[in-house]
Write a structure and sequence with these properties.
Elements lengths: L2 H13 L15 H14 L4 H14 L3 H18 L4 H4 L1 H13 L3 H18 L10 H13 L5 H14 L4 H20 L8 H10 L4 H13 L3 H14 L4 H14 L2 H14 L4 H21 L5 H21 L4 H13 L3 H12 L6 H18 L3 H13 L5 H19 L5 H13 L3 H14 L4 H15 L1
Length: 480
């Protein structure tokens, strides 16, 4: 192709609305796990097959398999022809956009141009305004679903997409479902980060009203009701969802989570084992099963002073097996890494615990609150298993230094205060402990308590420049 026509082709490709122009980056997701998830959803959510085949084609491209990507686009086309023959002009725009991009990457430029022309002609038919960008709510929704699948970093953008789609079709059941799901997840993360929360409860209720057969949304609503202490109402939704779709793993996973949190661990395990028989590679299910075994471990340890060692070892072994399986399926599963490291520590397998903590911190998609959780758990490991209070203090402080408030940061602060106050009560009168406690109070915004601690530290170590400087700055900040 000539340079001019190649530039024209590239310019046209960038105007398309499809997965290739939605900035979905492969480093933000575990491609193998995403492929597995989408495959499962194609099997269990047939009504979403156009969307899922389109996404699967993009995942195949990212994995370097363009031929497989084309095969999935053919399946998306077939699903559109079968389910929406009268709406084919707009149902298939994203699919055609993906075709154009994949042919471009395969250097089959004429075929790429053919699909660009198809999109352009359809857009002209559908809209008298813009040549390329036709404001179709279905396209915004499809973008929203794709962003949702690419993880937490993309949730705000997904929320914006579903909101835009809903402006045009406020009663569309699928758009409301997508919006409720993303708001449920955002609410969960906002709570962990101690941020202002937009409640998802009413959005989930509306999504269920618009689509009473969507047992997946019903199960999420049940968990949200459990969160706000409306457990009986939540259980009614769980029971109804299980009655409508007793063998749907996506309902079973949330039903199991509901019963585990309710304290009915045996019932949760039973449901999870049934779900695993259908989707044996589900990282979510293996993680949930491990949490059940963790609950059983604490039950054993709390009910008797000397629990039977063989039972303790068996529960730890099973928890470790399921956590390792979850991580094998989803390599960036941070919370599973944390649970696995702690479980190794419970089993006194300290070398493996240390290695797992280090691997967890290497994950490239950690948010600040993940890092704070890491420092809290690693600090606990140093304190209670390695018996190193100084190392524990060092890691709790690292968590506290990340200034964004979160549940993890609070845990670091509380653990640090408790440990330092215990050391001081032992009567060791160590200037370092008072100085560190002063830093804790200062990082927590408790300036008067910080001044008191620094004064005690300086009384024990009068020439310490760090304490003198911190005390001077604090006094100036209070007087100014």
């Amino acid at each position: 192709m000539s340079t001019i026509s190649m530039n024209s082709l590239k310019s046209s490709l960038l105007k398309l609305e499809c997965h290739f122009t939605w900035t979905l980056l492969k480093q933000d997701v575990d491609l193998g796990h995403l492929e597995e998830t989408v495959d499962d959803q194609i099997e269990f959510f047939v009504e979403s097959n156009i969307t899922n085949y389109n996404l699967l084609s993009y995942v195949c491209h990212l994995k370097g398999s363009n031929e497989e990507a084309l095969r999935n686009l053919e399946k998306a086309e077939a699903a559109a022809q079968k389910d929406h023959p009268d709406e084919i002009d707009w149902r298939i725009l994203v699919t055609w956009g993906n075709y154009a991009w994949i042919y471009y990457h395969m250097k089959r430029y004429e075929e790429a141009q053919t699909y660009i022309n198809k999109v352009e002609n359809s857009c002209k038919k559908l809209s008298n305004t813009a040549q390329w960008k036709t404001e179709l709510p279905e396209i915004y929704a499809e973008q929203g679903w794709a962003l949702l699948k690419f993880g937490r970093k993309y949730y705000e953008r997904a929320k914006d997409c579903f909101e835009t789609a809903l402006k045009n079709e406020p009663d569309n059941p699928r758009f409301n479902a997508g919006y409720a799901i993303v708001m449920y997840r955002l609410e969960d993360f906002s709570l962990r980060q101690c941020e202002e929360v937009i409640p998802s409860l009413e959005l989930l209720k509306r999504a269920v009203e618009l689509n009473p057969k969507s047992t997946f949304i019903m199960a999420l609503l049940a968990l949200k009701l459990q969160d706000v202490k409306q457990v009986d109402e939540g259980e009614r939704y769980i029971e109804e969802a299980m009655q409508i779709t007793p063998d749907l793993p996506y309902v079973q996973r949330y039903a199991a989570k509901f019963y585990r949190r309710k304290g009915e661990v045996d019932k949760a395990q039973e449901i999870l084992k049934k779900a695993l028989a259908v989707t044996p590679k589900s990282a979510f299910l293996h993680h949930q099963l491990a949490l059940c075994y963790k609950g059983k471990l604490y039950q054993l340890k709390n009910t008797t002073r000397y629990p039977p060692q063989d039972q303790v070892e068996e529960v730890i072994r099973l928890a470790i097996f399921h956590l390792k399986t979850a991580i094998a399926q989803k390599a960036k599963f941070f919370s599973a890494y944390m649970e696995l490291a702690n479980m190794y520590a419970q089993g006194r397998r300290y070398k493996e615990a240390e290695e797992t903590f280090q691997k967890a911190f290497q994950i490239n998609i950690l948010f600040d609150n993940d890092k704070q959780e890491y420092y809290y758990h690693y600090g606990n490991f140093q304190c209670f298993h390695m018996k190193s209070e100084s190392e524990a203090i060092r890691y709790y402080i690292e968590g506290l230094k990340i200034e964004k408030e979160s549940y993890g940061r609070r845990r670091c602060r509380n653990a640090l205060k408790k440990l330092l106050e215990k050391r001081i009560q032992r009567g060791l009168e160590d200037a370092t402990d008072f100085g560190t406690l002063g830093l804790v109070h200062n990082l927590s915004g408790e300036k008067h308590e910080a001044i008191e601690c620094y004064e005690k530290a300086i009384a024990l170590c009068p020439n310490n420049e760090e304490y003198l400087s911190a005390l001077c700055e604090l006094r100036l900040s209070i007087s100014s």
